[in-house]
Design a protein that fits this description.
Length: 246
Amino acid sequence: MLQTENIYLFLAILPIVSFLYSSVGHGGASGYLALMALFSFAPESMKPTALLLNIFVAGISFYYYYKAGHFNKKLFLAFAITSIPFSLLGGRFDIDASLYKKVLAILLVFAILKMLNVFGKESQYIKEVKLWQGLIIGALIGFFSGLIGIGGGIILTPLILLLHWGKMKEAAAVSALFIWVNSASALIGQFSVGVSLEKESFLLAAIALTGGVLGGYYGSKVINNQRLRYILAFVLIIACGKLMFT
């Protein structure tokens, strides 16, 4: 894995990606997959590696948001009850490489819009999510998260904000734990069909964790560094184009 051309540039960008994603309560799998696609990683190593990095980064991000008092347990459970088994199911499937790239490119659009703060507006009026809504949305996001190798936060956070189910930092806290449980479940699904992690994946996880620690701490408290998010959005747009047209 680490024999990829320009690997040192990849290793330099990786913690920046984890920092920015963690600062908004995400694990960063869509960003890691985009980077791996840009740097021509082997397709079979991308999904399990992204899930592993997600577990580390989303876990530390949730810790800081939870510690800051932003976690809504009831809101989390509404989605997680069905997302966990369905993400495990999705993790057991592999799809055609060409189709995989196209679906990932579409999902990256959500990440780009999030980094551009399209979904960053809060409502003063918060509604309670109905149980049936949470169960259906959790199942759908969970399955596609496991199938593609993401945690689902890039889809769940916009939904929470757009449908007024929570405020921004509350959505970030819920999404962080949602990402963690889905990533862990999907990785178990991968292991159950014989997929294994390369040892280099744990080195990448350690590097990503450094950015995740800083992002989770500052994101749960003070920062909103829009300039850096614009830069990441630009990188994601390039990756999205490469995935869609190659």
